Amino acid sequence: xxxxxxxxxxxxxxxxxxxxxxxxxxxxxxxxxxxxxxxxxxxxxxxxxxxxxxxxxxxxxxxxxxxxxxxxxxxxxxxxxxxxxxxxxxxxxxxxx
Length: 97
Known about the structure:
Pfam families: Amphi-Trp (PF20068). This protein is of the alpha+beta class.
């Protein structure tokens, strides 16, 4: 198991359709319970639990150019070997329309 810290960081530009496809691919992997991100040596593979803690934030950012940022953070506890621990926190404040 790797120590706490960043395992993968990536940044890219997508069209709306490409982003929708990426999110659909992520959703399919979440449903399957396994997710691999990246390629080669930088690849990170994860077994996923049944429940997650999710935090969503929308804000305006930027100094010269105003930008809108949507941040979706998904967390779950793991064993030292990376195996997910099951837990359940109550859901509150989430709707997507």
